[in-house]
Design brief:
- The structure is a homodimer of 345-residue chains.
- The first copy, chain A, has eleven helices and 19 strands.
- In chain A, strands 3, 5, 6, 9, 10, 18 and 19 form a seven-stranded mixed β-sheet that branches.
- The interface between A and B is large, with 38 and 38 residues.
């Protein structure tokens, strides 16, 4: 079958690899119906060197179950499934606490002997724990929203949930990428009435307004901070959902968060150390939270309103490429000519 | 009257100063009945230079109202009052959210034209907002517990509350000083059944056991982390209450916190930058919270069980000095021959 591999920076190739086979009794083989390219895929795309080992790509996909192991009981052949970006047994002590991204036996697609989702098929470990079945019949119009549930929607929701967004909290969302826009949608769904979106790509911030943003701040750095403070009587917002991952986004978050407020990060930090002392977090009782979203926890909760059409997170996709042309999708996202790209095997 | 001033490191003096007078209509003059020396007083005691301007000391005190301004309506002359370590109007938007340490008009004792509490009397700004009346008659046996309510008990409680300690959470408390011990007591009161106290002064950790600690870990650094992980099947505890403020305590907190858990800091950080990236906080969804405790919010809530004798936070005091001998109190705490010292004017 055909599958996406990355080599050095910018070097994405579609190659012939063996069709996956069952290894463990709890596995399933999933034929990929659609996959997509993630903002986090671009970290490697931008920064890898030729010395890095080749890696299978893709951690966001939906598909149809082709084959199951002898110890798979909930998932059936023929099921249409949504895969969260991390696989998990969904039974360990962390999974039971709703933190499937810390599953003792879990992991991430495209590592070790587990393939990636930008391919024709993939072996899913812990099929019963990992995969969520979409009750049929399945409307192809909803594929983009199902893809959003594999990662970006659950990730934006995680940001808002960890920040304890409610009708009582004002919100700043930093970043107008797909995750930032999903954070806007999630904040709106959790009742927020004031959502300031920091982003400078008007097509994206316009979509943010569709999702519920009430204000858009295009400025960045000190100017961006000043603008948010101006919009909030100098106090900042109760919650800041940081969907970028760079250090300047952290600094902006510290600058716009209200005393007693929460910075919730879901952009994977591209830095290690940052200010946490008296002048940044401690003195004003700022809470810093977030991390890799346990999307598996959220899919079942968020799916009904997707199925009924109450929300349309799939709007974040603005381009589709064939699997053979997946490299074009990476390039479009890296060049920001696409917001988020669907890959069709 | 006599009041405590600090000059250079280790240079604490009791001096003649003017008796405080009302300045604003919302002020009260409080005659100090007891004050105490705080662990945070020692930061200046250890680190000041002779070039630093002299500063009035003491932010923990109880006393009797001597005089009130024309716009003071709740507090009456003769009231026995507990003062939180920060004064606040208790009406601004932050105070209404329970964050009196970020009061727009508030501040800290011993700054500007507001004196310190290690003195014979002090002027309290915003008397109605700041001071909490103890319903009389007042039992002198309870003075130590009232003093604990001015800072260390509320601070330990803040750590536990911000960490969302409950019967469902395991707890590590880092630090066996007065605040750490009050964090133990608070965690116990919030229902925690497993409380690991990290500290190496047996008199103090014994008191910690009295307050509810179930395990004591005397080791520090990597050894301390290993010991806590050993006690928790390798997972760490859901919550970590950090009551020290040094960078190595932060690193220990990161080492012993469970994935998905909370580090709650109430020791004033003596550092600015610390690891917050993928390998420390983000990757395991660790929440970092805490800050200066809005003790004013907590005194009324915690007072009834002090009055009824259900809890005795005053046990953290193990020495009393006269105001004239306050320097001995600082020295005893700096030398760790005293856990916490009462000052009697």
């Amino acid at each position: 079958m055909r599958a996406t591999m990355i080599y050095g920076a910018g070097d994405v190739r579609v190659e012939d690899v063996s069709h996956p086979t069952l290894i463990h009794a709890t596995d399933a083989i999933v034929r990929i119906v659609r996959a997509c390219v993630c903002g986090s895929d671009l970290h490697g795309y931008n920064a890898r060197t030729a010395a890095d080992p080749a890696k299978a790509m893709g951690h966001e996909f939906i598909g149809i179950v082709e084959e199951i192991g002898s110890d798979v009981h909930k998932i059936k052949v023929g099921d249409f499934v949504i895969a969260p970006f991390a696989y998990a047994d969904n039974t360990c002590e962390f999974c039971r606490e709703g933190l499937q991204t810390s599953c003792i036996h879990g992991g991430f697609w495209g590592n070790g002997d587990v393939g990636g989702g930008q391919a024709e098929a993939v072996r899913s470990p812990f099929a019963d724990g990992t995969l969520v079945v979409v009750p049929g019949p399945v409307d192809p119009e909803l594929y983009p929203s199902f893809l959003a549930l594999t990662d970006v929607y659950g990730t934006g929701y995680h940001a808002a949930l960890k920040a304890q967004v409610s009708a009582a909290t004002t919100v700043t969302v930093i970043g107008d990428g797909a995750v930032g826009l999903m954070a806007v949608l999630s904040a709106k769904r959790l009742g927020a009435e004031r959502i300031i979106l920091m982003g400078r790509h008007q097509v994206r911030t316009d979509l943010g307004i569709t999702f519920g943003a009430t204000d858009v701040v295009a400025e960045r750095g000190e100017e961006g901070i000043a603008r948010v403070l101006e919009l909030t009587n100098g106090a900042g917002t109760h919650t800041v959902l940081e969907a970028v991952g760079y250090r300047d986004a952290y600094d902006m978050a510290v600058g716009v968060v209200r005393a007693g407020g929460v910075i919730s990060r879901v952009g994977v930090p591209q830095y290690d150390d940052a200010p946490v002392g008296r002048g940044s977090l401690f003195g004003r009782n700022i809470t810093l939270t977030g991390g890799p979203a346990p999307v598996r926890s959220y899919i079942e909760h968020l799916l009904p309103d997707v199925l009924s059409g109450v929300v349309n997170p799939g709007l974040v996709f603005d381009q589709t490429v064939s699997l053979e042309n997946v490299a074009d999708g990476y390039r479009a996202m890296a060049d920001r000519t696409a917001l988020k790209v669907i890959v069709q095997p």
